[in-house]
């Protein structure tokens, strides 16, 4: 793995872990804090929900597309510089979102936030993997998963309560001091490491990001009113063609942006598909359920935030324990268990949410099950990715994280297409994707981890 900082002494690791988990928490909250106030935003700008969902999807789309590039930047410039730059960009986007005079400007500001967030996961994962010994890898990845879970736990209720009391613009205002605090801590304690001068394979990077952007843009545009079907189909076909060119070019070049052969190595593939499945279901839940609660059930933003809080609360509490379990029995069986539980949760959501207004307790129960499933999938998937050959480079970790947020972008776009009358179909589709992930978890054999070097 390039740009590996020397192992940190135990006393310094505490501050380093606080900085890395703080950046993770900030990125997660910045991403999901608008989910509950989304209806308030659409009412304020007098736009339909199908357009308002762009406020959520803009961040996710930019996150997904830019992650491999920011992974390469992390190797090239060093992790501290990358993290500092990312937090500064995130601060600019947050201020812009708070001051947005129209929906297009807000969507643009959210895209800027996505650009800042894109650099965080890869730099944090690589720093964690390089600063802690291998036998502690699952535990620190469990802590990273817990920070994600806490961010998911805090974002929706904070967004709901702040929007209910002060309006949706204040939701972004409360993030500004947190962003400044994370920036200061990052500058002070994150090691600089050794930047790895390397040539950027511009063609490979360009075809990967362009192809992914075309596919996600087509999926995002599909449910928008007035977008003809041929435009969507053209975007999908062009995107698939450009991605095929990325694979073909990577197989020919001596030093490709990412070697496609490493992407079919079972640890990376199993982990990447696992987080794709997890994130697509999670995004669908975190957007569709608040819309269902504030719409069909007429709950307030604050009450909706409390209900949704059940999912990330279980996620945050479970993630460190999942790390210990992965160390004891191995990440693969834990990943498989999580995918099975996610499949069951999606089926339950298709019945409870898609089937009409049932007991609110049933909604909470399915959210609890989803939160546990997410924790069981995420930690072993992260561990597997960092142990794979592709995970030894920033671009490879970036592509792994791209898979996470491509899943999230497609899950969010699916909500726009399914809401309000086809939520049962939405979650049935999520269940089918989870079933495919379960099948892949049985493929290949377990191999020894790759040591960073």
From TrEMBL:
One Gene Ontology molecular-function label: transmembrane transporter activity
Keyword Membrane: yes
InterPro entries for the chain: MFS, MFS_dom, MFS_trans_sf, Sugar_transporter_CS
Residue span(s) of domain Major facilitator superfamily (MFS) profile: 16-446
Bilayer topology term: Multi-pass membrane protein
Cellular component per GO, a single term: membrane
Compartments (UniProt record): Membrane
Primary location recorded for the protein, binned into one broad class: membrane
Transmembrane parts of this sequence: 47-70, 82-99, 111-132, 170-190, 202-222, 228-251, 272-293, 305-325, 337-357, 363-385, 397-419, 425-443
Keyword terms: Membrane, Transmembrane, Transmembrane helix, Transport
Protein name: Unannotated protein
Organism encoding this protein: freshwater metagenome
């Amino acid at each position: 793995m390039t740009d590996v900082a020397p192992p940190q002494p135990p006393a310094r690791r505490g501050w380093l872990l606080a900085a890395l988990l703080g950046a993770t928490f900030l990125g997660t909250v910045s991403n999901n804090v608008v989910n509950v106030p989304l209806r308030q935003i659409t009412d304020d700008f007098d736009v339909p929900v199908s357009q308002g969902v762009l406020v959520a999807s803009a961040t996710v789309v930019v996150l997904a597309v830019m992650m491999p590039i920011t992974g390469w930047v992390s190797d090239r410039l060093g992790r501290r510089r990358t993290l500092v730059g990312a937090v500064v960009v995130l601060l600019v986007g947050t201020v812009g979102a708070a001051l947005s005079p129209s929906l297009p400007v807000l969507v643009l500001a959210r895209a800027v936030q996505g650009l800042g967030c894109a650099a965080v996961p890869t730099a944090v994962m690589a720093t964690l993997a390089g600063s802690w010994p291998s036998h502690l890898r699952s535990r620190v990845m469990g802590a990273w998963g817990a920070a994600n879970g806490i961010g998911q736990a805090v974002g929706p209720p904070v967004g709901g309560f702040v929007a209910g009391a002060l309006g949706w613009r204040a939701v972004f205002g409360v993030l500004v001091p947190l962003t400044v605090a994370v920036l200061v801590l990052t500058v002070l304690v994150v090691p600089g490491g050794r930047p790895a001068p390397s040539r950027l394979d511009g063609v490979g990077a360009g075809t990967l990001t362009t192809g992914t952007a075309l596919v996600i843009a087509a999926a995002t545009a599909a449910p928008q009113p007035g977008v003809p079907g041929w435009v969507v189909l053209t975007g999908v076909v062009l995107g698939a063609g450009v991605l095929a060119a990325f694979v073909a070019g990577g197989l020919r070049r001596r030093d490709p942006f990412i070697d496609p052969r490493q992407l079919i190595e079972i640890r990376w593939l199993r982990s990447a598909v696992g987080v794709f499945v997890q994130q697509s279901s999670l995004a669908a839940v975190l957007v569709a359920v608040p819309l269902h609660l504030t719409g069909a059930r007429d709950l307030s933003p604050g009450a909706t935030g409390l209900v949704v809080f059940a999912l990330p609360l279980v996620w945050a509490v479970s993630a460190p324990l999942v790390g210990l379990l992965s160390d004891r029995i191995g990440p693969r069986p834990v990943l498989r268990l999580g995918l099975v539980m996610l499949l069951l949760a999606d089926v339950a959501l298709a019945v409870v949410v898609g089937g009409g207004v049932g007991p609110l307790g049933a909604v909470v129960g399915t959210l609890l099950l989803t939160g546990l499933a997410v924790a069981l999938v995420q930690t072993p998937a992260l561990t597997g990715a960092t142990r794979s050959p592709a995970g030894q480079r920033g671009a490879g970790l970036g592509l792994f994280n791209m898979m996470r947020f491509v899943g999230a972008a497609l899950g969010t776009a699916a909500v726009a297409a399914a809401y309000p009358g086809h939520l049962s179909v939405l979650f049935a589709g999520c269940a089918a994707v989870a079933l495919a992930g379960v099948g892949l978890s049985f493929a290949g054999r377990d191999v020894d981890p790759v040591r960073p070097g």
